Task: structure prediction
Amino acid sequence: MKPRSILLIAGDPSGDLLGAELAQALREQAGPFPPRLWGAGGPAMAAAGVELRHDLTRHSVIGLEILRRYAELRGAFQDLLDHAMRERPDIVVGVDYGGFNLRFAAALRARVARERGPFLNWRPQLVQYVSPQVWASRPGRVKTLARTQDLLLSILPFEPAWYAARAPNLRVEFVGHPIVDRHGQEPVVAPDPDPPATLLLLPGSRVGEVQRHLPVMIPAAEHVAAATGARVRMVLPQESLRAIAAPFTAALPGLEVQIGGLAAALRGATVALASTGTVTLECAWFGVPTVALYRTSWLTYEVGRRLITVKYLAMPNLLAGEAVMPEFVQAAATPEALAAVALEWFRSPERRAETRAQLARVAKSLGPPGAGRRAAAAILSAPAATSGPANRTIPNR
Result:
């Protein structure tokens, strides 16, 4: 039996980690005939044995900042498309990175249709792992998803119902959230960590986020440390970000900077200041009261605020339906605003306990362990590459 060929595409550090976890699960689920895994991603996927043609995570950007990398991304896009037509993978999996992956799926689907004939009867199964946030902005993109994707793997509990109401013919499966497997099977609901009190800074995983968030985080941390005596620690996901952060962190000599080790840092944190990304869910998992912030370029912000329809940016707030994590966006994200909320938590154990209970309820909604296994099983259940889309559901195992 010929092993399946699976093309995986991820484009930022969080997607790279998710792609690496998926690669491992695909090999485990495939049994004696592990698939060939290749495509684009980053160092985590490479370490997991994925044959990378492109590292798309090196200079990860979002919004209109992507224009700076347009030529590079366009070249990778075209190379992956041409290589897919030559290699004819059985399955193509877009791992998050919706702006790139939705366009890639549509382009591949269109090119296969154009070139189909007596010598090409190939129809790959197209899968998107992690729903683009079409429910937050530009909901019309659901039509593109329904037209191009055979399977959408959701990691948020409210998404299947949202899609069922708008694209009933699109196969959507909630597989659970991967952080459940990364950090243990039960969210942390223990009392506050042992002293000393610690303020944790989580500025983000992208260069632009570090450059825009630290100028407000560092002064806020100075104020909190002076008022409470709390130690201040910062976690960066990659060593390359240390030099980017250095000009800002010099103003706070006592700041502890570490690369990686987020889980241990969260276990010891009293309060956090964090970018409104995936890390806010990890803060929720560990029950850390968190002030969420986001600052971006003026143009990206002005475009985004006209497109985004949801009330909150931080995922724990969307799942809770309320601002469990106070949010400060763009000009509202000032050192004074961040410090004021953080100080309320430092000075009130009762308020911290209430917030930790709210965060525990959010964490419980993320599903049971085994997201990677369920995602891999759903992907491998796809029919042969020349047949139509699958309709079978995968049991919750």
